Amino acid sequence: MPDELKLLDRRAVCALFGDIDASTLYRGIQNGRFPAPIKPGRGTARRLRNECEAALRQIAAERDDPALQAEAAQRIAQANKARARTRALRKAERDALTT
């Protein structure tokens, strides 16, 4: 199998990014910092190794480039706002159901 098609499971991806916690991985996927999984089969999720390595190179580049740091911060802020809106909508839906 060519290297660009090698698949990594969640544990291997977390290890590649420095033994991060799974919740950190999922937050990073939501805000675009880490690659989204592909689903090769029912109940399985894997990430392409080359996408993970590219994301790691991007993180390293952001460390040294203020423009990339600002772009990453903006992307994360947008994702956080979207999550906050989703939480507020879910809370409003729950409150509407209980009244």
What is the name of the CATH architecture? Orthogonal Bundle
Largest sheet: 2 strands, antiparallel
CATH topology: Multidrug-efflux Transporter Regulator, Chain: A, Domain 2
Strand arrangement within the widest β-sheet reads: 1-2
Provide the domain count: 1
CATH class value = Mainly Alpha
Cα(first) to Cα(last) distance is 57 Å
Rg calculated over all Cα atoms:
17 Å
Helix/sheet category: mainly alpha
Q: Which blocks of ≥5 consecutive residues have pLDDT under 50?
A: none
* Number of extended strands: 2
Order of helices and strands, N to C? EHHEHH
Task: Report on the architecture of this protein.
- The protein has 99 residues and is mainly α.
- It has a single domain (3-98), classed as Multidrug-efflux Transporter Regulator, Chain: A, Domain 2 (Orthogonal Bundle).
- Helix content is 66%, strand content 4%.
- The protein contains 4 helices and 2 strands.
- The protein has helices at 10-16, 22-30, 49-64, 66-98; strands at 7-8, 47-48.
- Strands 1-2 form a two-stranded antiparallel sheet.
- The longest helix has 33 residues, at 66-98.
Overview features:
mainly alpha; 2 strands; 99 residues; two-stranded antiparallel sheet; 4 helices; Multidrug-efflux Transporter Regulator, Chain: A, Domain 2; 66% helix
Task: Give the SSE map.
Elements: E1 7-8, H1 10-16, H2 22-30, E2 47-48, H3 49-64, H4 66-98
Antiparallel strand pairs: 1-2
Quick structural overview:
66% of the residues lie in helices and 4% in strands. With 99 residues, the chain is mainly alpha-helical.
